[in-house]
Amino acid sequence: MKRLTVPAIRARKQAIAEGRGEPLVMLTAYTVRTAQLLDPHCDLLLVGDSLGQVIYGLPSTVPVTLQMMAAHGAAVVRGSYHALVVVDMPFGSYEASPRQAFESAAFLLKETGAAAVKLEGGEAMAETVAFLSDRGIPVMGHVGLTPQAVNALGGYGARGRSEAEAAKIVGDARAVAQAGAFAVVIEGVVEPIAIEITRAVGVPTIGIGASAQCDGQVLVAEDMLGLFERTPRFVKRYGDMAGFISDRAATYAGEVRDRSFPTAEQTYAPKA
Ligand code: KIV
Ligand code: NA
């Protein structure tokens, strides 16, 4: 199976508009085995900087480093064959200048083999999005609730409840799309904003806590599978992996303690 390309993802916008395209399916993946299992079902795999909380127990995505993103990005590329892999640019690796962003993004693509990066921000990042796009690095935008800005935003509540904030978010999405982003994630906004953006921009919008009318959807896999404990309202739980794991760990612990594991089946007999 040939891996999906950036032009193929971008072209989905027109296909959807003409009624012959399905919404884009994206999930996060941080590890090789998760990537292998999710890959056949997804158009895009996102190596999200949400790995800071989900994998490393950090309080936010702010402390995540380029090295973490490179290591997990490489694992996800090794575990996937079909989906386009997008790697998040971590906080502090791109905001200072287009040149800083290019160096960080080039490092991530070289280290991982991924085809694209994602970065948070709107108008302030438009010049950077153009700089990377013009130099062979496809960029996915991310507007609305931008978790790397948690210290400025003061929390993770939905964005765009005031008219001014709504207009700012729509302007941000237009700016990054205009600058050459091949798709835009819209996170944690009141629904009319997501619909307006989806109508306004010429590239696919991928919603998370946004709208069913976006051109695609993304969730954090661990949230969707019921593995991670704190999940926002917009997460639908499709399973209870946390329950499964603790239940099986309890069974194993019981069998070790009462010596019913291991049995002859799991032990080596000496040669006859
Ligand atoms: O880091 C992440 O998982 C993300 C998605 C939730 C869009 O950026
Ligand atoms: Na992210």
What does this structure look like?
This protein has helices at 6-17, 32-38, 51-54, 66-78, 98-112, 126-133, 150-153, 163-178, 191-200, 221-224, 241-257, and strands spanning 24-28, 44-47, 84-88, 116-118, 139-144, 183-187, 205-208, 216-219. Strand 3, helix 5 (98-112) and strand 4 form a beta-alpha-beta unit. It is α/β, with parallel strands linked by helices and 272 residues long. It has a single domain, classed as TIM Barrel (Alpha-Beta Barrel), CATH 3.20.20.60. The model has no long low-confidence stretch (mean pLDDT 97). The chain has eleven helices and eight strands. It has an eight-stranded parallel β-barrel with strand order 1-2-3-4-5-6-7-8, surrounded by six helices. The structure holds 3-methyl-2-oxobutanoic acid and sodium ion (NA). Sodium ion (NA) binds next to loops.
Write the layout of secondary structure elements.
Layout: H1 6-17, E1 24-28, H2 32-38, E2 44-47, H3 51-54, H4 66-78, E3 84-88, H5 98-112, E4 116-118, H6 126-133, E5 139-144, H7 150-153, H8 163-178, E6 183-187, H9 191-200, E7 205-208, E8 216-219, H10 221-224, H11 241-257
Parallel strand pairs: 1-2, 1-8, 2-3, 3-4, 4-5, 5-6, 6-7, 7-8
Helix pairs in contact: 2-4, 4-5, 5-6, 6-8, 8-9
Bound molecules: 3-methyl-2-oxobutanoic acid (KIV) and sodium ion.
Residues 28, 46, 48-50, 88, 185, 187, 208, 218, 220 line the site of 3-methyl-2-oxobutanoic acid.
